Amino acid sequence: MPDGSVVKPAKIPLYEDHKTIHPKSVSGRFRRVKTIAIWVLLAIFFIAPWIRWERGPDAPAQAVLFDLTTPRFFIFWIEIWPQEIYYLTGLLIVAALGLFLATALAGRVWCGYACPHTVWTDLFIFIEHFFEGDRAERIRLEKAPWTTKKVLRKTGKHAGWLALSLVTGFGFVAYFTDAPQLAIDLVTFNASYEAYAFFAIFVGMTYIMAGWTREQMCYYMCPWPRIQTAMLDEHSLVVTYQADRGDARGPKRKSQTWDERKALGFGDCIDCGQCVQVCPAGIDVRTGSQADCINCGLCVDACDNIMIAQGLPTGLIKYDTLAGQETRAEGKPYVWRLVRPRTIIYSLLMLVISGAMAWSFALRPSLDISVQRDRAPLFVTLSDGSIRNAYTFKVSNKTRQNRSYTLTATGIDGAEVKVAGEDEAESKDHASHISAAPDSVATYRVYVTVPRASVTSNSTPVTFLLTDTANADKDTYKSVFLGPAN
Fold first, then answer.
1. Alpha helix (H) ranges present in 217-334?
2. Residues 6+ apart with CB under 8 A from 185
3. For residue 131, is pLDDT > 90?
């Protein structure tokens, strides 16, 4: 500067300030599909814990229960034990592959129609619309000074949000304990500290995430927008703006005919902004494909309504593919390809993993054993010279009846099995008899005694064989028998 003063550059913020998005209500086919999906999913979520399922005496009567105190997972006739956690792993893998397949077919269609955050956000927006009106009215209310009417409307909205959050918090906790008893305990203040703690967490997270953060959850916290781009291909259906038909964009005067408008180089898009106003993520689909688009199709409904009002064909914004746009631009017909390499791979993987899980579950035994050999001392030499090892033996009785078993050890000549506390008269033919209560894990201390002449090395493989005396079901466990080095 001539006067020697220094002009400091203007500060550019690193992050753009958050702008509240007020989605506008819209009607149409995709809005109807979205609404149906929401109510079906909510019905499943809230009703499932109340369904009763008889499993026998001393068993929970709730159809879907994730009992962490037992611990067991009960899903109707299916009962998953802790050591069967691989079923949960397989289920998560199948769910992930299903998400990959859905994305390959129709982009973020899961996010738009079935994601829990989307479902609850839609409900919160419905409550907001009920108390504060549609988009334009809500924007005016935000800018208006605080009056008694504004306070009442805001209070009603937040009361509705809190009520829904309370019901949602109960719904989540009800999957982990008996739902009817939980309702009574929460109201009478007799629930456990853990129940109240998790209830408060779920209530608070629902209120904050669905009421306040909304699209910010999708922008900043959810990793799927970044991942899903790798799942798409040129035949994936995504919400697209038909630029060749709509551009150049611009408003249309009432006195202007469409022929006059087209002669001036304008397209069918009248730049009304309805597609942006109805978008729950606040994006403009006309600027191209965006990772933040949840493929809900509400902008399609908004644009179709405008096209119908203008007397033009619908489909200016629609579900389309990149390959379809390029093919039609060349004047060639396009047929959407459902079957393609990635959809085949995802489907086959889902089928194989689901089949393996079903086969494993159908053939799983009703009993399960585990054995742990004592490490101190490694072995004991008895007065007659024989060698004895001690083991902790656990048997899981997965039935609802008392069970009795015969326990033997094979692999070493003359091996004799005895349970601690068992009388000599109860041990016959080198075997012992044990029992297990219904749906429980019985623990025993087992001694295996072997003649010194049979111990030919310091570590000899030994196999425990447990046989159900009632139905001859069997299970085995391989371990080792330790002795002195020769």
1. 224-227, 243-246, 258-263, 274-277, 298-310, 322-329
2. 191, 192, 195
3. yes
Chain-centroid distance of CA 378 in Å reads 46
First-residue to last-residue Cα distance in the chain: 98
Secondary structure (3-state) at 237: coil
Neighbouring residues of 292: CB distance < 8 A, sequence distance ≥ 6: 215, 218, 219, 225, 281, 283
CA dihedral angle for residue 194, residue 197, residue 202, residue 205, rounded to 10 degrees: -150
pTM, 2 dp: 0.82
Residue 212: its H or E element: none
Q: Which residues are CB-contacts of 157 (< 8 A; sequence separation ≥ 6)?
A: 127, 128, 130, 131, 132
Q: 122-148 in b/e burial notation, b at 16+ Cβ within 10 A? A: bbbbebbbebbbebeebeebeeeeeee
Q: Determine the Cα–Cα distance for residues 291 and 279; give it in Å rounded to an integer.
A: 14
β-strand pairing of 387-397 with 380-381 = antiparallel
How would you class 417 by CB atoms within 10 Å of its CB: exposed for 0-12, middle for 13-18, buried for 19 or more? buried
Provide the residue count of the chain.
486
Residue whose structure tokens are 């551009």:
247
Interatomic CA distance for residues 436 and 453, integer angstroms: 35
Are 175 and 65 a contacting pair, CB within 8 Å?
Answer: yes
> Please, which residues have CB within 8 angstroms of residue 364's CB and are 6 or more apart in sequence?
84
SS3 state of residue 373:
strand
Q: What is the pLDDT of residues 333-359, one digit of tens each?
A: 888 888 999 999 999 999 999 999 999
pLDDT of 4 over the 60 cut: no
Q: Helices then strands (H, E): number in the chain?
A: 16, 14
**Contacts made by residues 451-455, CB under 8 angstroms, sequence distance 24+:** 451/385, 451/386, 451/413, 451/414, 452/381, 452/385, 452/386, 452/387, 454/412, 454/413, 454/414, 454/415, 455/387, 455/412, 455/481, 455/483, 455/484
CA distances from 427 to 392, 408, 449, 480 (A): 18, 10, 13, 22
Is 60 exceeded by the pLDDT of residue 117?
A: yes
Alpha-carbon 183 to chain mean position: 25
Q: Is the pLDDT of residue 401 over 90?
A: no
Q: Which of 314, 363, 349 is nearest to 84 (CA)?
A: 363
Q: What is the pLDDT of residues 72-87, one digit of tens each?
A: 899 998 888 888 888 9
Range with lowest mean pLDDT among 128-142, 146-160, 230-244:
230-244
Query: What is the rounded average pLDDT of the residues 41-68?
Result: 90
State residue 46's pLDDT score. 96
Q: Which amino acid is it at 371?
A: V
